[in-house]
Amino acid sequence: MDSKLDISVVVPLYNEAESLPELAAWIDRVARQNALSYEIIMVDDGSSDDSWSVVEALKADYPAIRAIGFARNYGKSAALYVGFEAARSEVVFTMDADLQDSPDEIPEMRRMILDEGYDLVSGWKKKRHDPAGKRWPSKFFNFTARLVSGIRLHDFNCGLKAYRRRVVKAIEVYGEMHRYIPILAKHAGFSRIGEKVVEHHERKYGCSKFGMERMIKGYLDLITVSFMSRFGRSPMYFFGGLGTLMFLLGGGTTVWVIADKIYSQCHGLPWRGVTEQPLFYLAILAVVLGVQLFLAGFLGELINRRSPDRNRYMINRRVE
User: Fold this and answer.
1) Does 295 lie in the same domain as 228?
2) What CA–CA distances, in Å, run from 273 to 85, 129, 276?
3) Domains contained in the chain, number
4) Are residues 258 and 199 in the same domain?
5) Domain extent for 246
6) Is residue 195 exposed (0-12), middle (13-18) or buried (19+ Cβ within 10 Å)?
7) Please, which residues bridge with residue 7 across strands?
8) How far apart are CA 138 and CA 133, in angstroms?
9) 139 and 274 share a domain?
10) Residues 34 and 123 both lie in one domain
11) Which of 52, 83, 177, 290 could bond to 246 as cystine, CB 3.0-4.6 Å?
12) Residue 86 to residues 1, 50, 89, 232: CA-CA distances in angstroms?
């Protein structure tokens, strides 16, 4: 950690060349007005426009800028992951590069981290300048995330967040999990999660890089992060438990079908052959599925304990 820095601002970007000069100037102005020493970590997620050239040019005017460039587009989660690794201050911020997040919120969110003891403070875009086609699906998505996670945040997907350093160094952001960093933080033991209403601006340049498919991915990721939070380190608890239950249910039913047939024969009662009963085949199916689920849990445990670091991204350029 660099004790001389008050804040680190991680900015993932993808084809945002037009907005970067204004964003850098805005962050610099806010930092100077509040006497904050800072660094801006810009992570170029494989942009195909002039974003990297703009970042290199900005370095001359703003020495606090550090930059990382991916060889190709890996996604926002990957950009945040390497940005968190590079961050050096005690309080780390994230914000989008499209100028819709306001750096003016930085001083108050930093105060909430340092003075009020929060581990994470998430922005809440209470008044959004987005089309209704984005606002209403987002409301439903956030409602579902609150219900599943138990975290009372209104806007999980807000790009503007503040973190205590130990949080970003402890969590593992991969895939599309950037939407669920509060859930990942809670799972890692950081339960002091706060929220602040933040100003949201209309997009000034270009267009959104996220389509409606992010809603589908969002719900799939919610299922994934919920499962990983509970069983990610011990998949046997889920697969093994479910497999054992199905095995016992199927095995018990099989024994009952055979015993019922033998009992009926011995007492001269009407009886049906075991293989003539559909219930017998359902019981055998349950036994087979139970064994397969148990083996899936066992293999999951072996893979989990032997897997190398999954977060490997090819970085082909860097500015320090």
Assistant:
1) no
2) 66, 69, 5
3) 2
4) no
5) 235-303
6) buried
7) 38, 91
8) 9
9) no
10) yes
11) 290
12) 10, 23, 10, 26
Dist. CA 152–CA 143, nearest whole Å: 9
pLDDT at 66 (0 to 100): 95
- Pair 161, 80: CB distance under 8 Å: no
Same structural domain, 197 and 288: no
Domain final residue, candidates 188, 204, 233: 233
Shared domain for 179 and 276, answered yes or no, is: no
Q: Is residue 308 part of a domain?
A: no
Residues 93 and 210 in one domain: yes
The reply to whether 80 and 118 lie within a common domain is yes
Question: Which residue's structure tokens are 């050096």?
Answer: 88
- Which pLDDT value is given to residue 209? 58
pLDDT, one tens digit for every residue, the chain (320 residues): 555 899 999 999 999 999 999 999 999 999 999 999 999 999 999 999 999 999 999 999 999 999 999 989 988 989 999 999 999 999 999 999 999 999 999 999 999 999 999 999 999 988 876 666 566 667 777 788 788 778 888 888 888 999 999 999 988 887 777 888 898 888 888 989 999 999 888 777 766 655 556 666 666 777 777 776 677 667 888 888 899 999 999 999 999 999 988 988 888 888 888 888 899 999 999 999 999 998 988 887 777 666 655 555 667 677 77
Pairing of β 120-124 and β 161-164: antiparallel
In order of 81, 127, 191, 235, the CA distances from 209 in angstroms are 19, 21, 31, 34
pTM above 0.85, yes or no: no
Q: How far is CA 240 from CA 65, 160, 290, 301, in A?
A: 49, 40, 8, 10
Residue 195: helix, strand or coil by DSSP? strand
- C-alpha torsion sign, points 67, 73, 76, 79: negative
- Given a contact cutoff of 8 angstroms between Cβ atoms, the answer to whether 101 and 16 are in contact is no
Strands (E), the chain: 7-13, 38-44, 65-70, 91-94, 120-124, 161-164, 193-197, 315-319
- Assign residue 216 the CATH number of its domain: 3.90.550.10
Q: What is the pLDDT of residue 213?
A: 61
Domain boundary among 205, 233, 261: 233
